[in-house]
């Protein structure tokens, strides 16, 4: 199983940059964007970092997980009813 890499970058990623990196999904909130993708080995991670750098983006940090936290950040049903 490939690890999921979240590349947190400063700024909002526009449609042109998103189109230039089809191997990564992009989500933005405010002035932070997260590019998410998988990599089988260190060389694949270097390739992804090169894509990000070539697009002129500055990576603030990288998170390695088994699945992306960014795209699954919903409130659990038990917590959603706690405020009632």
Please characterize this protein's 3D structure.
With 84 residues, this protein is α+β, with helices and mostly antiparallel strands. The chain has helices at 15-20, 42-54, 77-80, and strands at 3-10, 25-29, 32-39, 59-65. The chain has a four-stranded antiparallel β-sheet, with helices on one face. A hairpin with a 2-residue loop joins strand 2 (25-29) and strand 3. The protein is globular, with a radius of gyration of 15 Å. The model is unreliable at 72-84 (pLDDT under 50).
Q: What characteristics describe this protein?
A:
84 residues, alpha+beta, four-stranded antiparallel sheet, 3 helices, 4 strands, 27% helix, globular, disordered C terminus
Biggest sheet overview: 4 strands, antiparallel
Strand content: 25-35%
In whole angstroms, how far apart are the ends? 41 Å
Oligomer: single chain
Q: Helix proportion of residues, in percent? A: 25-40%
Q: Number of helix segments?
A: 3
Strand arrangement, major sheet: 2-3-1-4
The topology string of helices and strands comes to: EHEEHEH
| Number of extended strands | 4
The residue-averaged pLDDT reads: 80
Q: Overall 3D geometry?
A: globular
Q: How large is the radius of gyration? A: 15 Å
Structural class: alpha+beta
Unreliable stretches: 72-84
